[in-house]
Amino acid sequence: MHRRITVFTLQVLRNPPIIPSQKNPFYSQFIPFARGANELASFRFFSFSPVHRRVPDPDDPANLMKEDGVSVCSQMWIENFREPDRLVSNLTSYLRRFELWVLAYQKICADEIGSYVPRSSITRSALDDLLALRNAVLDNRFKWGARLDFFIKSPKDKTDYESLSKRKIKAILTTTQPASFQDKLVQEVLFMILEPIYEARFSHKSFAFRPGRNAHTVLRVIRRNFAGYLWYIKGDLSVILDGLKVGLVISALMRDVRDKKIIDLIKLALVTPVITSPVDGEEKKKKKKRKYQKKKVLAEDEPKPDPYWLETFFGFAPEEAEKLPSWGHCGILSPLLANICLDELDRWMEGKIKDFYCPSKSDVIWNSPEGEAEQGNTSWPEFVPTSGPDKTRKMDYTLWRSYLIGIRGPRADAATLRKQLIEFCDQKYMIKLDNDSLPIEHITKGIMFLDHVLCRRVVYPTLRYTATGGKIISEKGVGTLLSVTASLKQCIKQFRKLNFLKGDREPDPQPCFRMFHATQAHTNAQMNKFLSTMVEWYRYADNRKKVVNFCSYIIRGSLAKLYAAKYKLRSRAKVYKIGARNLSRPLKERKGQSPEYQNLLRMGLAESIDGLQYTRMSLIPEADYTPFPSNWKPDHEKALIEYIRLDDPKTLEEQRSCICEQGLVSPQDYISMLVWNYKRNAIVMDQLSLVKSAINSTKGDHENYDTEIKDEEVSEEGLHASQI
């Protein structure tokens, strides 16, 4: 307040005409300023001595939250995507930002208690503990894997560790325990700092553990880019990731990040041993009689367990999805560190792809010298010719928790590449691989990847062209189509693992006793959600209708057996007779057969039961053959690149010149707009210089006061931004 009064007093002294005259009706309100008025009042007003402001407490968490954590993260993403190749050396400044710690606390609390915690709902004690954790990390007092001494605890952890008995303390210190709440917080903060740095650097052929990319993205890339490849090399990444040493991980991290505190934190997380319980396989657990368990009532802050349909779908996860790296106390940092280490393999493969490419003029698809701009789409329904003495030699590569290499050429080329890959892994990762871990398979045998089979269909299209003299010639050609089909054998295996069926040749559905105590409406709703998820999972499979129809048959048969046992109907035939084909009629007390129920249902007086979906093959949607763009990027990267492009002053100037060239704005209007901007800038600069000179002139009289006016000052950079 005193800064505003000081400036206002200076303006009054320099501009006396602003003092109202006696003719002014508001003269009585400004008596202290009128000429000839009481000089003592004027002296008291101008000799106003402001009270010193209270210095903000640096230990107060409220004073440290100047911005929103999401805006800080967004700025980090923009900076790294604007300059993706720069060497990062100062990340401790982001580690000090308390907004990131608050955002990490909100995310971890959402996982712990199952609901989002707004920033205004965080208690003062939690903020103080969070600040203590941040200071401990900055002062090198934080230790990974603490069991009893915590800086901050989970909101649902009510344990008093000081009053625990020795037996419980020993059990905590010697048995396997989940990661502590404070470890997850530090992992989340480090992840938010490092992820934007490396996401701007990773290869576009890597899809594992990255935002905006999933298994469907990999299947679409394979459908588009891997058509016409004869030989395939499939490798397991777990062999590489499990054998990596700490020194190799740190050296890969230090290629782009040179912040000592961040490096030391991650190195300490990798080196600190994880305490696990000894597993004794010889001791057999005695079978205990199953006691009656009361129905569990969840607490207010306790997250709800996953519904049954979601647990069932998680059981269908492919083998590649189960390979999740976990290194030391890194937690969610482990997948990111794995991608950082595998980035060298991605870059090496990209170089091999360029060196291996040898185009052929006789090829319809691949005849460009660069190998990137293709003449046609290699996916369905076009074909890639395989006949002819002069074939194109080409190779491609993709990575999603296991890498897949496709080669178009002789098998000797595939064997040479495998030998070079083994040498590269030996030199870079110090891991000995053999030929058995990198098998070379032909496309005719079928390549299993993500529970889908990659195979080849041979087609014989008729090629018609006009020869010399206008004669139309028809010839039989030979081509191949890449077929991506869902593995029915793998689907049966997953159903058997979930106890939905037994037998291989003639699968027999088994009753789903997990839903025995649920109502018919709830059971049908759960299975409908499961079937909808399965339809989405097999979205890009050529045999989508067939495999979803099989899943629907198994689920429907399992529920029919369950209802037959629950309502004592003895057979599935009676269940279908009463409850209809889709089990939409009530089976309790055989209401589905009564005409009264049909009348009540017609009048809307009875509750309807949703029947099972996809009971007929005609109801199942077709496979999705939407073309996949060659330069595909996830939505968040598109938004970042577009924002950076629009934020560039050159883009604005190009748009202005383009508008003038197209005649949308006349040159006179364009010149007048520039003149107006120049005049406005000159006026603002004059005002800025006047304020600065006023502040400099009052420094002698107010040496002990804070006379900076940060809110009113306009910087030249802000002026340039406002002009844009």
TrEMBL record:
Residues 484-589 form the Domain X domain. Pfam families: Intron_maturas2. GO terms for biological process: mRNA processing. This is Zuotin. GO terms for cellular component: mitochondrion.
